[in-house]
Each structure stands twice: as structure tokens, then as C-alpha cells.
Write a structure and sequence with these properties.
Layout lengths: L5 E3 L11 H12 L3 E5 L4 E4 H17 L7 E5 L4 H12 L3 E4 L6 H11 L1 E6 L2 E2 L2 E2 H8 L21 E4 L9 E2 H6 L6 H10 L5 E7 L7 E6 H15 L6 E3 L7 H14 L2 E4 L6 H10 L4 E4 L1 H8 L14 E5 L5 H10 L6 E5 L6 E4 L6 H6 L3 E2 L3 E6 L12 E7 L5 E2 L3 H7 L6 E9 L5 E6 L4 E3 L2 E3 L1 H9 L4 E11 L3 E10 L7 H8 L11 E4 L13 H16 L1
Parallel strand pairs: 2-14, 4-5, 4-6, 5-11, 6-9, 9-10, 13-14, 13-15, 15-16, 16-17, 28-29
Antiparallel strand pairs: 1-20, 2-3, 7-8, 11-12, 12-22, 17-18, 18-19, 20-21, 21-23, 23-24, 25-26, 27-28
Helix pairs in contact: 1-3, 1-9, 2-3, 8-9, 10-11, 11-12
This protein binds adenosine monophosphate (AMP).
Amino acid sequence: MTSLSYSRGPQDNALLAMTIGAAFDQSVARFAEREALVVRHQQVRLTWAQLAEQVEVCARALLAIGMQPGERLGIWAPNCAEWCITQFASAKVGVILVNINPAYRLSELEYALKHSGCRWLICADTFKTSDYHAMLGELLPELPACAVGALQSRVLPELRGVISLGRTPPVGMLGWSELLAKAEQVSAQRVQACSALLQFDEPINIQYTSGTTGFPKGATLSHYNILNNGFMVCESLGLSEDDRLVIPVPLYHCFGMVMGNLGCLTHGSTMIYPGDAFDPLATLQAVAEERATALYGVPTMFIAMLDHPRRSEFDLSSLRTGIMAGSTCPVEVMKRVINEMHMAEVQIAYGMTETSPVSTQTAADDDLQRRVSSVGRTQPHLESKVVDEHGRIVARGQIGELCTRGYSVMLGYWNNPEATAQAIDAGRWMHTGDLAVMDEAGYLSIVGRNKDMIIRGGENVYPREIEEFLFEHPAVADVQVVGIPDEHYGEAVVAWVKCHPQQVLDDAQLRAFCQGRIAHFKVPKHFMFVDAFPMTVTGKVQKFRIREISVEQLALAKG
Ligand code: AMP
């Protein structure tokens, strides 16, 4: 009898039954004099004891401006020391942190703040092409005329004030140092009293997921959700207080604030931010100069580092491990990271914001083939199953939708019971929308998104398979495959190809490369050669944009 695509992670390593604040205090007591946080672009270097002092001051200040446990505090800033301090301080006093994507523009910001009912917002001044002060001036014209902390906004009636991380906060906003100065109005005992009442199952974080349709949804995560996920992810990496982790991924996403910050917190490891946003050179420099032992990134970040013309200048030999995650991790890129970046123990993690985020992970002792080509096995204390369109578990080896259950599944979407009920079924299984296959040994492979699957003339085509195949061409640096409408076949396969520097490819060469090596219906009808893909700030490729642009450009070419 063939076995079913269901698996359960090991249970031997106990879950942490405590709040983030309690875990923070424990780590500070254990690792006090060791380095906790290095923020290279701000020249910040703090031990756990020094970080604890700043977190304590910030926690008191949050109470001083009237924040109550359970109220929401928005943060709209790229990676910086204040982000980390705010994360731990808000957790200590039970204030729910609402992560706002630094790339959000006015309408998205307004939606997130209104929907979550934020009382205060912490914002940067500028980042890339975003002028946060100017945008907030537009959204909140009442700011300059209202006393600080007594905002009366027409569009955001629940918002009381804005804290600026900029050097010169505009009139009506509170500066970061002014905020911290308010700490003296509140005693340390009040923070302790507040922390003591918190429960680990209470919500502590809301993250708006971009969703391709409708409004963004606020995945609501508890202390238990994210503290344990950060802990288990870094247990798998074998992190300890001797490890130094470079975090170039954004903090507003789970990859940074959970797998990075909370993973380090629970292991006493050092958090190193190479810059306010990902930059391949700054990240390589951070690894070399900080003698980092671990590095995180989404596949496109690793590709950018591997292909950087100055890579050979940097000694990366201190690296041991790290994680590639966030989207399909191409086998060739994994092999290069192992061989060319000294990351012999690099692991792949898979998951989504709604599951805190990681559900499956490869292990350092998995055989090489599985370590580069699967997303590993089910994480400790979690369950995975792969189901068909009727919700029935499929046999191992069959494709279906991946579902996850366990401590990591979010509490729900903030204020959105309908969307929650669509995502989490009555058995508490989170339906991921990802298509996966489980092998006999329980290793999972992601073959695409439910909606990414291309149906060409009745044949199911999985973009992932064609991408992996095209990656084998030595001139191909990166590739994305999508389906677009086709009169004849319903859908046609389109491949966007990025070549390595100084390499050129044309349609005929790639077509010849595919000929006879993959089934004819999988050979892309169109190859498009590009320098970049449309991306989100998290480094996720926006396949829907690739689809839209392909349709437009092919229509233009046709005339
Ligand atoms: P987010 O909620 O932004 O973290 O996005 C979650 C989605 O990213 C998942 O549903 C997957 O489609 C994709 N994803 C994350 N990690 C991986 C991985 N290792 N391999 C393939 N897809 C991934």
C-alpha cells in the first residue's frame, strides 16, 4: 500500500511556553556581555545588557505616551537599530507591533493603519524613493496644528501621533529621542507589572501580506507563534552564542524579525544588519568584516552576491550556515552557495507569514541532493499534509496543495473572520495555496503556487520544473517562468531570462538547449531577455507583473 502525504515533525525539543519579553530577559541574563546587535550603517554595536537598557527605556516610553497592552503600534521603516529596539520593547509591554512594508505608498499605509486601528506610528524620514514625512504630511494634514500625541485625524481617527526616526522631525511629530526622554515619567515597576500580566497566546504582531487580490490581510501572530518559530529555525541551524548572523532581509517581514531577531534572541547569537535594505556589496563586506558564521537571504540576494564583480575580495571563510528561503531556491544557486560562499551547512526553509513563517526546513545532515532540491521535512511540533482539490490526502509522490498545522499557525487575519475561515479550516489546517509533493522519506518539494500552474492544451506545466531546467544552462543567471493566455492552447509558457554578466543568449540558443531534453509542451513559446525582474521589497519576484508585462510586450511586438 502506498503511504499518504502526511508527516509530523519530531517532538523531542520542547516548545517555549513564555512571552517574548520573558525570553528576552532570560537571554539578557545569560549572555549579558556578549554582542547582541550590530547595525553597520548606523555604527551601532550593543551587548545584550546594553540592548536591554535601550529596550527598557523604550518600553517605559511607550507606556508614557499612553500605549496600553493590546493596542497597536505601526512601524514603517527600513532595517535599523530602532526597529529591533521597538520590536522587543513593544513585546515587553504587550503592545501589538504592526509591521508596515517600507515600500507601501499612501493608500496602502492608510489601509493598514486604519484596518489595524494603530494608536501610534513610528516612521523613518526617507528611504529609497519614499519620503515618509511628505507622505504623512499629505495623509495627516492636521498634524502640525495638533499637540503632539493629541492628533485628530479625519482619515485615521484612532491614530494619536507619529514618532519620527529622522534627524529633524516635522512639526507635530515626536522625535525618537523625545520619545525616549518620556521614559522618566514611568517606573521600571510599571513595565514589570505590565509584562507579568501578558499571556504567551496573546497577539503581539500583525503583518500585512501582500495578497494578489483584494486588500492586504493582517496575519495576526502570538508570542508563542513567532518566538517558537524563531527558536526552532535556529535550533535546526545549530546556532549558539558563538554565532554571528548577517540579516540583510527586511525586518518588516518574518524572515528578518522572527527567523533573524527572535532566532538570535533565543540562542544568544549576534544580529548583524549590513544596511537599511539589501545591497550585495554591503552584505559581503558585513560577512567578511564581522567574521559572520551565518547568513540569510532570498535566492535573488544570493545570486546578486555570487555574481558581484568584487566578491573575490572578501574572505567569506568564517561562514558555516544560513538559510535560503522565500521563494524557489534553485538547485544550481544552492550548490554555488555551498561551494563558493563556504556555507557548507546552508539550509532551505519554506513557509509563509501566516505560519510564523517556517513550516519545513532541510537539515545540516540531509544528503546533498535533498539539501539542494527539496524544502526539507516538517519542522518540530508541526504537521504537513498534501491534499487534492477535494481536501483528501494524496499518495506520496502526487502533487497537491500543502497544508500546515500546529503551534505556528497564526491566530487569524486581523478583523477578518471570513478570510480566516477560508485560509484555516475547521481542523486548524492552514491551506497554503502552494503545490507540493512529499516523497517516501517525508521530504517536500514545492512545485508552484496553485494559481501559478500553467495548463497548456490540457497538460499541467509547473513553472518550477522549467526554471530548474533552464538554470542548468551555464549562461543563465536567473529565470522566471509564467503562463500567459494563448488563443490556441489556452495558456502559453513564457520564460524571462537574466544572463550572467558579459554573457548573451538568444531565443534560438535556448530553444536548441531545450530541444529533446524537456517535453515539447514545456518548451517556452517565448523567451524574453531582461536585466531585472519586478520584485517586492522582500525580494519576491512578482510573477503577476511578469505576466502582465509579457502580455503587453508581446501584443506590441505583434503590432
Ligand atoms: P510570505 O508570506 O511573503 O512569506 O510568502 C509565502 C510564500 O512564499 C509561500 O506561500 C511560497 O509560495 C513562497 N515560498 C516561501 N519559501 C519558499 C521556498 N523555500 N520554496 C518555494 N517557495 C517558497
